[in-house]
Design a protein that fits this description.
Layout: E1 6-10, H1 15-24, E2 30-35, H2 38-50, E3 54-59, H3 65-78, E4 83-86, H4 101-129, E5 133-137, H5 150-170, E6 176-182, E7 185-186, E8 201-202, H6 203-215, E9 220-223, H7 228-236, H8 239-245
Parallel strand pairs: 1-2, 1-4, 2-3, 4-5, 5-6, 6-9, 7-8
Organism: Desulfomonile tiedjei
Keywords: Membrane, Oxidoreductase, Transmembrane, Transmembrane helix
Transmembrane segments: 225-245
Amino acid sequence: MVDPKSVLITGASGGIGSALAKAYAKPDRHLFLGDVDSDKLARVCDICNELGAVSHGHEVDVTNREAMENWIAEADGTAALDLVIANAGISHGNLRREETEEQIRAVFAVNLEGTLNTVLPALPMFRTRKRGQIAIMGSMAGVRGFPHAPSYCASKAAIRVFGQGLRARVRREGVSVCVIIPAFVQTPMTEANAYGMPWRLGADEAARIIKHKLLQDKGEFVFPYQYAFAAWLASAIPSSIMSFLTRLK
């Protein structure tokens, strides 16, 4: 893939999103950064501008379909997009507490609908130009259902499979779709995890890996590399055994 000159990132005010914004920040590159937290987003934009980028921060909720369509169209009109990263995501479940119905619906709204609201408006633009790259932020949680966060697992599984199928559908049209599958990355979201997170990476290191893999046009990639086999194994273990291994005490 060609190094992108115009990049759009959702969930850009913190965690992997802000790390990606900083990783892509360089002179003459346009960054369109979206998030619901306008204050944090403004600080990220300031950092990216100091690194030479032309940053455009936009307060937007990925669950708002019309707002997302308008924002992405406006961004593309300002500087034709080369790369769109559907990064925004939330999780509520952990070992300490069970998800409520409202939390479950919120997770699906942000992680699934929010991803669709990011990908679908960009897709026609890329297909018309016969170039462009879409990156979807999956998760190791999406390879199997785990009892501490079933909605998060299911939402990430859905966008993973969506990305796999979409890549095969549009690749011949010059459009690339990549699914990113991180394991444990140090972010505000993972701070709530009440269990060990071996080989956990910092957000900046995760962003460096993602940027490198996207340039290689990897259809799907798991990182850290130690989890590549674990991802396959988790999907291959019979349900009866997996239920025993992941039972809650």
